[in-house]
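Reminder to self: tokens first, then the designed residues, so the page reads top to bottom the way the pipeline ran.
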């Protein structure tokens, strides 16, 4: 006997298989739910107070100062928040190492880290002396400028802490005289020459260094510059040099018009009073109304001990400055990101 062939459309078979699969998944899901115990959530009031306090304290933030590099090779100090922890100085150094996260954080500010990728730190601080043992990754710096900026950034970052007066270096546990490109690391280093200008002539005995702040060309940041002078390193000298402005090839912004004259300067009870000529009013023509120029002037003055306020006169008459509040730090990371949210460029 010959049985007739039964023909079933492929679409019907596929539809039946899909339905069967769906039913099977549903049954397994119901079975699994019935087998699982009910989740238990500890009532909030039963959580020990000690645990809650520890959790909150773990997120307490501290301010620290990190040194990055800008596109012109200047070192730029930035105040950043970091979670309170043991070894805050070491944590600060680790924020300056090139990595995916650190590169991104610095790029938001228009800056970049200065320490070669993968570099580790072993840090010992005693009696005001810091000894930094760098991982051998530092020997992979791209050129001498990176080496010198790395050395200076580490010294300045560590000496931001009151417990550190000077810094000595080791590499891989060994004392070395120079790095790959010839940068000296054999000495004991203190705070000198941050973004030091090359002297226009040979320096002689009696030379002093004065530090000023100038706005970067895009006005986002204030950049410290050290200049050699043959006068006292005091607030009057700093204001005079500030008025001269940065060098033409510096890549920094001229904070005041070259026609502005310094008519007088005095200090009393922590207030420095500066009398400028009428041309000073031209700062209002700046794209930001002169805010960064005034912040740069105030930072230049208040870095001197005892100076807590800056008062401006124009031809002897009080001048209403565009920035009344004396800045506590040149560059604060959160403020920069808030004011310039579009800044985000990694080359």
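Designed residues (347 positions):
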């Amino acid at each position: 006997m010959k049985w007739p062939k039964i023909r079933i459309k492929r679409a019907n078979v596929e539809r039946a298989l899909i339905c069967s699969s769906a039913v099977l998944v549903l049954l397994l899901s119901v079975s699994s739910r019935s087998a699982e115990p009910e989740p238990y959530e500890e009532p909030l009031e039963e959580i020990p107070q000690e645990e809650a306090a520890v959790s909150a304290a773990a997120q307490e933030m501290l301010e620290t100062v990190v040194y990055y590099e800008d596109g012109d090779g200047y070192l730029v100090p930035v105040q950043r928040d970091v979670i309170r922890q043991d070894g805050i100085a070491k944590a600060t150094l680790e924020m300056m190492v090139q990595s995916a996260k650190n590169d991104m954080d610095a790029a938001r500010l228009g800056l970049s880290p200065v320490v070669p990728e993968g570099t580790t730190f072993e840090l010992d601080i005693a009696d005001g002396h810091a000894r930094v043992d760098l991982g051998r990754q530092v020997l992979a710096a791209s050129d001498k400028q990176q080496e010198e900026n790395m050395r200076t950034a580490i010294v300045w970052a560590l000496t931001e802490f009151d417990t550190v007066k000077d810094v000595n270096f080791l590499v891989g546990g060994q004392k070395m005289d120079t790095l790959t490109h010839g940068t000296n690391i054999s000495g004991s280093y203190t705070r000198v020459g941050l973004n030091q200008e090359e002297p226009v002539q040979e320096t002689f005995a009696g030379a002093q260094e004065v530090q000023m702040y100038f706005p970067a060309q895009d006005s986002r940041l204030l950049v410290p510059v050290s200049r050699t002078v043959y006068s006292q390193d005091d607030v009057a000298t700093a204001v005079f040099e500030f008025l001269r402005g940065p060098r033409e090839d510096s890549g920094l912004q001229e904070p005041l018009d070259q026609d502005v004259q310094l008519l007088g300067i005095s200090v009393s009870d922590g207030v420095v009073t500066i009398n400028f000529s009428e041309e000073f009013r031209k700062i209002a023509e700046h794209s930001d109304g002169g805010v960064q120029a005034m912040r740069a002037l105030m930072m230049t003055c208040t870095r001197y001990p005892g100076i807590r306020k800056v008062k401006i006169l124009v031809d002897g008459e009080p001048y209403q400055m565009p920035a009344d509040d004396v800045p506590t730090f040149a560059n604060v990371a959160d403020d920069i990101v808030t004011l310039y949210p579009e800044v985000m460029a990694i080359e």
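The longest helix spans residues 10-35.
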